[in-house]
Specification:
The structure holds two protein chains of two kinds.
Chain A lengths: L6 H5 L5 H6 L3 H25 L2 E3 L5 E4 L3 H8 L3 H30 L6 H13 L2 H11 L6 H8 L13 H29 L3 H9 L4 H29 L3 H6 L11 H9 L3 H32 L1
Antiparallel strand pairs in A: 1-2
Helix pairs in contact in A: 3-14, 4-14, 5-9, 5-11, 6-9, 9-11, 11-14, 13-14
Chain B lengths: L1 H18 L17 E9 L8 H15 L3 E9 H13 L6 E4 L3 H5 L6 H4 L2 H5 L3 H6 L1 E2 L2 E2 L2 E7 L1 E5 H6 L9 H14 L4 E3 L8 H10 L17 H15 L13 H9 L3 E6 L2 H8 L4 E4 L13 E8 L6 H11 L2 H11 L6 H9 L7 H6 L13 H11 L8 H17 L2
Parallel strand pairs in B: 1-2, 1-3, 8-9
Antiparallel strand pairs in B: 3-11, 4-5, 6-11, 7-9, 7-10
Helix pairs in contact in B: 12-13, 15-16, 18-19
The chains are: A mainly alpha, B alpha/beta.
């Protein structure tokens, strides 16, 4: 059904020239449009459609559910703390990532021996699969065999091995550490690229005018870094909000859903009710869209002010 | 016009490739009147490597069956446990259903009216050969649909070496014994988890039902309605919370500890007691753990009826191969064949003749304590078509009952279970 609108453009190249010309740019943008329809619009349609269906556990559609699945979702006792956790998780991870990346980018922008090597090393957490990193940390934190537990105990920082990931109070900070760790490379490189576009003459002028280092950074570097910084924030917001592998790999959102964000919660609901899980997906989708729109709006407003 | 149709077809083909569901052609192996009928058998793989894969067993069985029944061909497809649920779902949704399926559960298929009743596809002698408790567990609303295939039961495992170090002479009989023994072990054998309580999402429904049975509770009441927050169940979790979890006699966070962790700890000599099933025998032997098996302790005394688990065979109506399926199942359930399967994988039988043969052959000393438990096994409410959903909810959150408020956690679960029943 969703194929129909694009069908003419597919059939078009086979026609004769006049017809082809009448179509204008359609044959050229057709493949891209088709791709977008297939991998973006169609899944979105299916997701929304599914959230209004009653589906049996073996996958049969039992008819329309109306708004029932949404009602059920909003009646979940866990939803409140999951939403709060998602907001805290996103804010903390993105803020820490941006702050640390600013410092790292500044560092890597300096000339120092071994810079090339350390720049490469920074790619490592990015190059490794996120799920692999998460599972690696899970085992390093394992109570009986974890190397981090042993190290912390030997250093006298803790009394004995702890089950870090079993308790939400300690699991959250550790997962945030991992999330920041895997977000740093991309953000740092984005900011580094931004730093390198700042022309040297501007700094020279600042020096001539007698600006202090801090003043130079605040008045020159940061404003000129703005485009790169915004890209970094938006992409991180989306990535961290949607972050599934870190949490699933380390705690599966458990105990119960005490360490779940909305994305993980959606996956947990999948086991009991596909329709409700789809409703959660729709809410998630809306949240991401709203979050990004709000952010862009706010940042553009700032630009007008200055 | 023609080209347009072609274009449409091309788009549809691309769609079908990308989405693997264009969903027009159903049916698949439709039965033609003449010529041999092909039965599609889908089964789970019980082996852990190529050399002991269940494919070998089913291929041999299919060959022998085809030799005896020249008009029926059997198409064998063995799928590993991780993927079988997903693949079967895909088969069902695309209309390409198996004729015979052997897997972990059956009730969801009954809910969608896909299965033959067992009486349609089993001869009277085969139907009568099952151990009663198992045949009953295959019923939905009084009609048997699930045909038990292999079984397993839970028993209490303890590490004899650790017990000796702690100066404990006999395995515990009651909950109070468990707590007292665990305290002794904690004091005298440091570094060992006295009782391994796995209430993590892997199989919390099993461990919790075993403890609930010990207090006369369970997931359902005597009429078969869900009673997840019955007083007996709440008391069970309150007891666990204050007598095992709070004093540190088990894992610090049972709600996130999975069964495989508990089994691995026991097999490594790092846990002193747990509820296990027969696969733990091999693991313990491999780990050189001197283990003992005893009846599961209950609140007042050892349990008479333990938790039984079965895997199931079922026959799909879609292709209309009733008679051929009947012939095949009669063949597959002969004592010779079931005995071979059970012995290959050290599993427990579901038919009386095979149970008899395994008990008396003397080759299965290690399984002996389990044979006695089988006829009295208690089951999950498998025949309830909402059980899959309810079980998934239990797995997810019942573990938090030993850290939070048991009445509230179980109350929430009961509410969700009632919702599931209402929306069935």
């Amino acid at each position: 059904m969703s194929h129909t609108p694009v069908a003419p453009s597919r059939g078009a190249p086979a026609r004769r020239r006049p017809a082809l010309e009448r179509l204008g740019p359609l044959p050229w943008i057709g493949p891209a449009v088709l791709l977008i329809v297939l991998v973006v619009l169609w899944p979105v349609y299916e997701m929304v459609h599914t959230s209004f269906l009653r589906i049996s556990s073996s996958g049969f559609v039992r008819g329309s559910a109306g708004l029932d699945k949404y009602r059920k979702l909003f009646a979940e006792t866990d939803l409140g703390h999951v939403l709060t956790a998602t907001v805290v998780w996103t804010l903390v991870v993105v803020t820490l990532t941006m702050v640390l990346s600013l410092a790292l980018a500044q560092l890597f922008n300096q000339e120092f021996p071994g810079r090339r090597l350390t720049r490469w090393a920074l790619i490592a957490p990015w190059a490794a699969s996120v799920l692999m990193t998460a599972i690696g940390f899970k085992w390093m934190l394992n109570q009986t065999a974890g190397v981090l537990n042993t190290a912390l105990t030997d250093l006298g920082l803790i009394d004995g091995p702890k089950d870090w990931l079993g308790n939400p109070n300690t699991a959250w900070p550790w997962m945030m550490v991992v999330a920041v760790f895997v977000s740093l490379p991309f953000t740092t490189y984005t900011l580094l690229a931004g730093l390198q576009t700042v022309p040297g003459e501007v700094y020279e002028a600042a020096r001539v005018d007698g600006a202090s280092t801090w003043q130079t950074y605040r008045k020159i570097t940061l404003p000129l870094l703005r485009p790169a910084f915004l890209v970094g924030v938006v992409i991180n917001l989306i990535n961290v909000f949607n972050s599934f592998p870190i949490i699933w790999g380390m705690t599966q959102g458990g105990p119960a859903s005490a360490t779940a964000t909305t994305t993980v919660f959606m996956y947990q609901l999948k086991d009991t009710d596909i329709g409700e899980s789809a409703a959660m997906s729709v809410v998630n989708f809306a949240l991401v869209v709203v979050m990004v729109l709000v952010f862009l709006k706010v940042s553009r407003w700032n630009e007008d002010e200055s | 016009m023609n080209k347009r149709v072609l274009g449409m077809a091309a788009v549809c083909a691309v769609g079908a490739l990308t989405l693997s569901a264009c969903g027009s052609s159903g049916g698949g192996s439709g039965s033609s009147a003449s010529g041999p009928v092909t039965l599609k058998l889908v089964a789970a793989d019980y082996g852990d490597k190529a050399s002991n894969s269940s494919t070998l067993y089913w291929n041999d069985l299919a060959k022998a069956f085809e030799a005896a029944n020249p008009t029926i061909k059997v198409d064998v497809q063995v799928i590993n446990w991780n993927d079988i649920d997903k693949q079967v779902k895909t088969m069902i949704q695309s209309g390409n259903m198996p004729d015979v399926l052997q897997t972990g559960g059956y009730a969801d298929k009954v809910a969608d009216n896909l299965l033959y009743p067992a009486s349609d596809v089993l001869s009277t002698s085969t139907a009568g050969s099952f151990i009663d408790s198992f045949a009953k567990a295959g019923q939905v609303g009084g009609t048997q649909y699930g045909i038990p295939f292999v079984s397993s039961a839970r028993a209490f495992f303890y590490n004899k070496t650790i017990f000796a170090q702690a100066g404990i002479a006999a395995p515990p009989q009651t909950w109070a014994d468990v707590a007292a023994d665990a305290a002794l072990i904690k004091a005298k054998v440091p570094g060992v988890t006295p009782y391994a309580l796995p209430l993590g999402p892997e199989e919390a429904q099993g461990e919790s039902m075993i403890w609930e049975l010990g207090n006369g509770g369970g997931p359902t009441d005597s009429s078969g309605q869900y009673a997840l927050n019955s007083q007996a169940d709440i008391d069970t979790f309150s007891w666990l919370k204050s007598n095992l979890v709070a004093p540190g006699l088990t894992y610090p966070n049972p709600a996130t500890t999975d069964r495989k962790t508990a089994f691995a700890d026991f097999a490594a000599g790092k846990a002193a007691m747990l509820n296990g099933h027969p696969s733990l025998i091999q693991m313990s032997t491999d780990g050189k753990v001197d283990y003992g098996v005893a009846p599961i302790p209950g609140k007042a005394g050892a349990l008479k009826s333990t938790l039984g688990v079965a895997d199931w065979m079922m026959a799909f109506k879609k292709n209309g191969h009733k008679d051929q399926i009947k012939a095949f199942l009669d063949f597959a359930y002969s004592e010779q064949n079931t005995l071979k399967f059970d012995e290959t994988y050290n599993l427990m039988p579901v038919t009386q003749d095979t149970l008899q043969a395994m008990t008396s052959s003397g080759k299965h000393q290690d399984l002996q304590p389990f044979f006695a438990l089988l006829p009295q096994a208690a089951f999950y409410p498998l025949g309830d078509t909402t059980w899959d959903t309810v079980s998934a909810q239990i797995k997810q959150s019942i573990g938090t009952a030993v850290s939070g408020d048991p009445a509230k956690v179980l109350g929430d679960l009961q509410k969700k279970a009632q919702d599931a029943v209402a929306n069935k």
